Amino acid sequence: MKTFALAASLLALTLAVPALAGAPAITVTLDAGQSGAKIDRHIFGQFAEHLGSGVYGGIWVGKDSPIPNTRGIRNDVVAALKAIKVPDVRWPGGCYADNYHWRDGVGPKRNARVNTSWGGVIDSNDFGTDEYMDFIDQIGSEAYVSVNVGSGTVKEAADWMEYMTADQPTALQQERAANGHPAPYKVGFMGIGNESWDCGGLMTPDEYTGEMKRYGRFVNNFNNAAPTLKIAVGPGSDDTAWTDAVMKTWKERHGWSFDIQGMSLHAYTVYDGWPPHQVATGFNEQDYANVLSETLKMEPLIQKQTAVMDQYDPDKKVALVVDEWGAWYAKTPGTHDGFLQQQNSQRDALLAALNLNIFARHADRVRMANIAQMINVLQAMILTDGPKMVLTPTYHVFHMYVPFQDATFIPLKYDAGTYTKGSVTLPRLDAIAARSTDGKVWLSLTNLDPDQPLKVDTSVLGFPAKSATGQTLSGPRIDSYNDFDHPDTVSPKPVTAKAKNGAIVLTLPPESVTVVELD
Hints:
By secondary structure, the chain is of the alpha/beta class.
């Protein structure tokens, strides 16, 4: 690897892990004078679907619940989500969105329905539009609603947008006011359907682009002071036919009457084929390596889809929105088949960091992403059980990455090295750096090796760094996790260090994520 000829300001920091003799060493060179794209805060978005206890029990407990709540929304969850500065929450789905009829969930009398998408259970619709918007306001986030293209109509979707956003005294604005909210809601993002190639309608690309044009033309925000960005359904695999159809339609037809600002991509980490059958805990090192190898396929997937988008949109006006991603394992034993509940281990912390780093490296096109899902479902931030709540290792990664929200990407140079298990070879190190909105320089380092600590020599060009402060996240084992009885098995530990004698000693624990500020 070539090195910079410029003089470097050198950092020395040693994490609270003993350096082992013969531990691998990697040199990371950070040029603080260079900059890349903005890492949009919306790549740290969340997803809440009416699925299992993701909404009911996870967010909504009802106004009369003994669980502390504000207007039915649990206070502990709100506090935890505020701490990670959630930029947006996608709702109500997912597959559920194309079965959702918004009028079932507004007003004093709600219409209970069977959730035919997930589990065949009754959905009371007690958590509807106004409750969702209250939740968004309580956590300080933005709304991302998916309208029903699969079983709904253009008029239904247009009426819903009018109900939410009208700032003039229309009938739907007055209905919203009668339901307790005279002022218009802000809808930051609107998804035009969900997975229309599968659960959202089994459409062909041409069938979908016809619907995309109609919904994109007639379903609009009624409040010009708070515009809504429209996101079209994109692919769910590396097949580019869907991307080609959407982008070709956009290029040929966008203008004053129709436009989109984003196209989705769905990409779960599912190793060894469908249905998901890998266990979330109790796995071995080979399983660990296999899953992380699978998740790293996100990078070539983004590159392949971006190449098609670039053909039609070289100026990158249309964002690639990875609004469903994360690990999908076999369900937790004893739980409902349709609830997609799974534990969340230290492996998932690394998986989250690796994907966030990939998004950051492609921040010129990837400007939004939503992990699946926020609470109690798949790779969740939070697990709840009645009044109990626990934060997962994935939550801690999102918390540690808050400084990267809207930060400016800084290029790095390093030879990642290799870690090999069986037939799987992974990079030993994955790293990103950025300058946060307050001008501070941040560095994230992920050691994928579950067996050995990793020494990292860090040189910083164009920045007189004198100290480093941050956190490292590691677990006793690769499958360590937090539960209600042991909520801190995997939790961040503080790291503080100062430059000393020009030495560079950064020792990362095995299978760890470390984020430090260079001061």
